[in-house]
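Worked Example 4.2. Read the sequence first, then its structure tokens.
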Amino acid sequence: MTLDTQSQRCGVVAIVGAPNAGKSTLVNALVGQKVAITSPKAQTTRTRVMGVAIEGDAQMVLVDTPGIFAPKRRLDRAMVQAAWGGAQGADLIAMVLDGKAGLGRKLEPIIEALKHRSERKWLIINKVDIAIKEKLLPHTQRLNDQLGFDEIFFVSAASGDGLPELKSAFAAAMPEGPWHFPEDQVSDATDRMLAAEITREQLYHQLHAELPYAAAVDTEQYKERADGSLEIHQQILVGRTSQRAIVLGKGGQRLKEIGSKARAELASLMGVKVHLYLHVKVKEDWEDDRGIYRDIGLDWVE
């Protein structure tokens, strides 16, 4: 499909909300493939991730931001800074609310910050398929009274309910202008960064509550072999020896399973055979290592 650039529309939509509102699932669904990792664990998204969605002659750059919450540690502060940084220069800010969880104190910092933003603001009530229906309208009314949204949508990113209408509305709201990305590009994340994220997603999926929030994956080596396959070496960083034992599992079985699932997903995403080598390292102060922040795409904050 070749479009006349004079008829093109393109804009940036910042997706903000509390942890676990379903922002990444929503971005993936609108893009049509995975660009951001998801898990039931809150604060899975750490950095700003851009997904690129197309609807007709409109290209939407969807900025999936970390969940906004009251930060306690340096990593938290860096994530919240990345979230609001992702909203800078947006044509539209879309606040995603977990329709099942409803309102609560965790929304207060978001509401307070959005009151002072001049961008157009839309409210997206997510997870309507599992929410208590009678509570949705009161929640929506209370939020709208505080922030005065331009548009309100009820969707389920997981089931797809309401997404075609939301995507069409986003497209219509984009300003006229040439597309920012080639038609076949779905994200600004490098393959190296995506590889680390896929492994971190498997850590969360397989370890659930056993694995503390403080774990990172660093891609040390990423190279293409002569046969076209990929060779990837990654280091899983944990804060304590006991956490290393959890990731390894009995006889190293847990780590093998994590590697196997991550390898399969990477091969599917990259379209080539992947050789993945994982190593677990105890690094007590990894949250204070500037290099790790740089590698995972976060700015260092004091």
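Now turn to a second chain, presented in exactly the same format:
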Amino acid sequence: MLSAKSLFTEILDDDESFALFCSIAASGESQGGWENARIAALVPESERELAPKITRHGADEDKHGRIFNALMKKRGLDPVPVPSDTDYTMLLERHGIGLAHEKLKGEQPLTVRDIVTYLAHSRVTEQRASEQMDLLRKHFADHPDIGRAVKMISNDEDNHLAYCHEELLRFAGAGHGRDIQRTLRECALAEIRIYRDVSLAVMAHMGRILGWSRARSALLAAGIHAVYAYERFAGWRRMVSLRMPERRDALGGPASAAPEFA
């Protein structure tokens, strides 16, 4: 039976597909760490109190990248090149979602509107990350090799999502509500399209590695297109709503240390 658990188990059990999965994940997390570190360094003076939370966000992302690399090292695997069509973070940036890397590489302080854009982009992408990790946690929390990593990363992603909700509501209360809703909608509609394309690319690469039949690959592709159709019709709305989270001040402290993998 084709299910999320059976599909990921097949990827997990094969060294080559596992290395590709972890390399893609580690690359995206490390890129997110760099972006957050630069945003924290360029926060406008009026929002300097937000800088430690942005720094914590970036530190968490860096930690996740180290965790995925450690999972590979534990199995005696080396990271592999990430195919460009699977690079979710860079594809988002290339399509104008979030803050441009050219801006982040400079030294000009960001504006309050830039910070609102960053938070709106993060609210959308952290929704995706939280849901994906929740799925892995549901099926693999007790797995001897990846269970601890899945639980830690899942908890961090939930914290990131809570932080985005809380800070965006603060900015909405300060008069930025219209910009926030417009930016959230633009980000969500772009994200679901890029997520579809990246999912198709990842499954194509995995299919070649694992020798999937054309029929199985076609079935998986049809499932990805069906998810996109739902998200384009109505599902994107879950990415743009804002509510005060139960976890308040979720990024108010230092990042937790990455677990050791013997």
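Notes for the reader: The helical segments are 4-13, 15-42, 51-74, 88-94, 101-105, 112-140, 147-210, 214-233. The two ends are 33 Å apart (CA to CA).
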